[in-house]
Design a protein that fits this description.
By secondary structure, the chain is an alpha+beta fold. It contains 19 helices and 19 strands. The strands form 7 sheets. A 5-stranded antiparallel beta sheet has the order 13-14-19-16-17. Strands 12-11-15-18 form a 4-stranded antiparallel beta sheet. Strands 1-2 form a two-stranded antiparallel sheet.
């Protein structure tokens, strides 16, 4: 485990431990004793409720890796506080928020780029508190909003298997053209604030969203909504949630098939791809969405298709069926088949409009390629993905990656801690997104190296991990105190992990789980040439003081029903 001049397992626990004090300071500065965010509370896609909740991105992973329980307590308190706060907060001019920006503990109406960003903490909350009653209640209730179970929120058409609008929520779908005001929120004086998108007057806010009117019908962004029934399935094991995911995702696979392998951004209310005139590329954030930025006057491509891969990841998680991986791979081939040659150089499209493909780039279109490789573990799929330092390390090409990536995250943590301490902005001059870049939770490298996982983005995705750890003594998620873990190799059937007990006096016991949610089976364990058959999704390792072991795990992936239940709480046959 020696990496560069310092051992990896010494750096990782340091990053977990040193995150706690800045996290405490972050909450004390930006939230009150009720957990309410201290800012100018607004509705809107720029600085609305999604940003208030997004301030805690990566906090669930931080605790689930093994950080102090104080991290968990802080983000649970603020989550509850902000739900109450945004339920009490009301709009004046925006229809959907006049009775409360939140209703039934959920955003009244928004798109799934912003729903997903605001739900990051909730979606990964089950990693640490799978039996928390309010988590279980909301998991069921939130999923019900998109499964036709709530008559006040008719978001879903169960016959046609479609979500009826890209603007949806606890008060149901928007079935008309959206206005700029619907997106922006009530008018306000921008001058006292720092607007992170560069606007200096409210008119620029409105101008930014002038082209965002096409929202009726299903949209690939709505695939992020599959995270809610997936969370409910992980929490309860009830078959209806899995069935909904399969029904909805299979409907999308059929739409892709009808559209030459490419996922459409517009499905009409009658279920027809592209509607009566076949315009499959339209819709805000769709394939052909290139509005003008009023701040700089330039047209910008704002296709948000990277978010759609979440639906395919969730379907793979609950079914283990590779057809969802295959469908995205087929789409990459379909998009890249439209490449052109200009002056002897090949160019690949990223957008599609009324006439043809556009948004040309020098490299093949590779959106979602890392997810495809992680799902299939095929070398041919890895060749599609952009260069990635973590993957290079797994292939034995960058031995220094653990040290360099963790040191980078330590430096980021230190910078954010300084920024938190130096911030003197009064609450009345803050917007909800002003503290996003001071978030002290910095877990990207730890997630990769300890769990062998793709770090969840800000899109609201669940966790895709090869391994996860539990402390059976403290009965919580995460590695026990003094334990270091490093995943150094991943293949379709093998995982190599090194575990070390840093304590010189106390033994430690760690439970190693196959997959983020127990979806992978550990068939056998090889250590020091000794092979032991297992045939389970967890392995208990006892480490003597100062001891360590390199374990080669033979595994079968995606063969178990996933669950957020801790290993000792699961029902056995």
């Amino acid at each position: 485990l020696f990496v560069g001049q310092e051992r990896f397992e010494l750096i990782a626990p340091r990053l977990l431990a040193e995150s706690v004090a800045p996290a405490r300071a972050f909450v004390q500065k930006n939230y009150d004793d009720r957990g309410y965010i201290q800012c100018f509370v607004r509705w809107g896609a720029n600085d609305g409720s999604d940003d208030a909740f997004e301030n805690f991105r990566q906090w669930p992973e931080l605790h689930a890796l093994g950080a102090s329980d104080e991290i968990l307590q802080l983000y649970l308190k603020t989550w509850e506080g902000m739900i109450r706060q945004y339920t009490e907060a009301k709009t004046v001019d925006v229809d959907a928020g006049r009775l409360g920006m939140f209703y039934k503990d959920f955003a009244a109406q928004s798109d799934w780029m912003h729903h997903g960003e605001g739900l990051q903490s909730f979606n990964r909350m089950g990693l640490s508190v799978p039996q928390l009653p309010i988590f279980l209640k909301r998991a069921r209730g939130y999923a019900g909003l998109y499964m036709g179970e709530d008559p006040e929120a008719p978001n879903y058409d169960p016959k046609l298997k479609l979500i009826r609008s890209m603007q949806n929520g606890s008060r149901g779908p928007m079935l008309r053209k959206a206005t700029a005001l619907d997106w922006v929120g009530d008018p306000f004086d921008v001058k006292p604030f720092v607007a992170l998108h560069g606007e200096d007057r409210f008119e620029q806010f409105l101008a930014h969203y002038e082209g965002y009117g096409d929202v009726v019908g299903d949209h690939f962004l709505n695939l992020v909504a599959t995270t809610l029934p997936t969370t409910a399935y992980l929490a309860t094991g009830e078959a209806k949630y899995k069935q909904w995911i399969v029904d909805y995702m299979d409907a999308w696979l059929e739409r892709m098939k009808q559209n030459n392998g490419v996922i459409p951004s517009h499905v009409a209310l009658d279920g027809k791809v592209g509607g009566a005139d076949g315009k499959w590329w339209i819709g805000a954030y769709g394939w052909g969405f290139s509005p003008v930025n009023p701040v700089n006057g330039r047209r910008e491509n704002r296709n948000r298709i990277p978010r759609a891969v979440i639906g395919f990841d969730n379907a793979l998680l609950v079914t283990g069926n590779q057809k969802y991986v295959d469908a995205w791979r087929t789409m990459m081939d379909a998009v890249n088949a439209n490449a052109r040659t200009v002056d002897g150089r090949k160019e690949y499209p990223t957008m599609y409009g009324a006439v043809c493909w556009y948004g040309w780039q020098a490299q093949p279109w590779s959106v979602g390629a890392l997810d495809v490789w992680y799902g299939s573990m095929k070398a041919s799929d890895l060749a599609r993905a952009p260069q990635n330092g973590w993957v290079s390390y797994l292939q034995g090409k960058d031995a220094n990656y653990p040290e360099t990536s963790l040191r980078r995250d330590l430096e980021t943590l230190a910078r954010h801690a300084r920024d938190i301490a130096a911030d003197t902005t009064p609450p009345e001059k803050r917007l909800a997104d002003n503290m996003l870049n001071k978030n002290p939770a910095t877990t990207g490298a730890l997630v990769q190296l300890m769990w062998g996982a793709i770090p969840p983005g800000n899109d609201g995705s669940l966790l895709n991990a090869r391994l996860r750890y539990f402390d059976p003594v403290r009965r919580r998620a995460g590695v026990p105190e003094d334990v270091g873990a490093l995943v150094s190799e991943l293949t379709d059937t093998t995982t190599v992990v090194t575990l070390v007990n840093l304590s010189a006096t106390e033994p430690r016991t760690v439970v190693v789980q196959g997959g983020a949610y127990g979806e992978h089976q550990i068939e056998s364990v090889n250590s020091n040439g000794r092979n032991t058959a297992l045939g389970a999704n967890t392995l208990t390792v006892k480490l003597a003081p100062g001891a360590g072991a390199k374990l080669t795990l033979a595994m079968r992936r995606h063969v178990n029903a996933p669950t957020v239940a801790f290993p000792w709480d699961r029902k056995t046959e």
